[in-house]
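Re: How this chain folds, sequence and tokenised backbone to follow
How to read it: Take the token row as a discrete description of the fold.
Start of record: The labelled sequence and token lines come straight after this line.
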Amino acid sequence: MKLTEHYLQLRDSLGNTVENEDFTITIDELADILCCTPRYTKKIMKEMHNQNWINWKVAYGRGKRPTLTFLKNKGEVLFEVAKSHIRSGRYKEGLQTISSVGPPYQQLLNDWLVNQFGYIEESHQDEQLDILRYPFYYSIVHLDPAHINSIHENHLVDHIFDTLLVYNLQTKSVEPHLAHHYESSEDGMKWRFYLRKGVYFHHGRELTANDIVQSFQRLKETAFHNKSMIRNIRSVDVVKTWMVEFTLFKPDYLFPHALCHKQLSIIPLEIYQNAREGFTKLPTGTGPFKITKHDESMIRLDAHQHYFKGRPHLDRVEIITLADLDQTTKRDFTDYFSHDVSEKNSPMYWEEVQQPEEGATYITFNLFKGGPHQSIKVREAINYAIDKDALCDFLGGKHIFPADSQLINETDKTYVNQYNPDKSKELLHEAGYSGETLTLYATQLRKNASVRKEAFWIKEQCEKVGIMVDVHVVPINDLLREQTRKKADMIIGGVAFGNDIVYSFYRYLQMPASFVKNLMGKELGSVIESQLMKVVQEPDMDRQMGYLLELERMIKGDFAIIHLYHRSHAINVNSNSQLQGVSLEGFGRVNYKDLWFK
């Protein structure tokens, strides 16, 4: 990069020169411009000549001056430098380099960059590698399963780690995974798991029952937000090298479902203890891919050669981090990869594969806190003040649609747009509302990943009917702290359900980060607790779902929650490629393990 700076310094200082025109200049004059010694200046000029940026001819003899010819303009040089950065994996530096030279060269780089993503065949040390490379627009925070809090983090963890059991979406049942068989006592208090032999962690050690015990002990001892998932576990004990037994405090027929959850993945404790904070960047699991690089430029996953369910077809996946770009560069570049690509003559024409996502974005009310929102009429008035159809249009509604439940089929049965500002004003009058300000806290997963837009839109709609709203956008980890949460009158957040709908529904009502159970007040909270106890003690899945829907209807009936919208996920597959094995997981992400190319 220093050579580039020297070149730009020369061009700026010798502003009257144009490309391909010779002129004479001495080394001493160049040294003054570059603020270097004459000896180092000669080295610089030779390097620029070798790069074909300039033509540098040294003339020998008294009074003869060297001849300098600029062969490339600033844009051409920066374009080459940007490509060099990108080829070396320094994507951020490459895009920042080109951002200063204007749209023509930015477009040239975008056109060139298109061919650097997608399916790539590359040779590394005489080995031919099948690589999937794609851009992603924020940095991954956590890859330690215990601390994941976004869909994309969950997706990557799913490829790095394994759980004792997995949920099969096709059969809608829990199946063995790291365990090849499991059984429970008649009273549902003891659960025994028989482990597969020949399962290896990425660093080469074979998994045993000790790893199961240590993984769950770590969750008990670490700052794990979803401790409700493991609170009912009395003990985890090694029976034999390949056999482990869980003893519960109370019967729980959702326990096998919990063990499918990625936050309960099995880790090698010795690697975690050695790495500590580093484990969240470079974790080690048993999954089909292992992390071999994770820095500000990329996450690289290489195939786990000895994966117990078969080696992936891909050799490598590279996720290029393109966070913190200026918006112009980002918008131009993402046009090639957005969910809305429709031009068949685009450099990469994509066919859309779409999957609706169970779960919803919603508002909950803090019934532990005093204020106007303690009145059901005020909460109902806020419901009537929100035009959900208009909200979806405002957010760019192609993949967003109104919600009346966490479940899409329930929304289909019951949704009617209840927007009625006159009714809202009438209810406020009946409640005796006199203009007090309500605080609305909006959850933020990370920079540029929040419900800020929704929150300020809702503030505007509420103020049209006379409800004063003060919006705060707060990182979700801060909002999980009681001293922060108790300041909120309302919280707007969302949840995405996984494949296991019943357990996802149960967790949504249970876990702190959904802001339901921990906001519902003592009276409603005890009802929720009682109903959730019925769910876990009921072995029949249909009855479990019945209890959950009954509970949701009761919370909705009190207007303690207002559902806003559902999402659907879409990926776009290049119709001209020979990509095979494309399937979407529960969170609308592609399963890398099954991808292959003809």
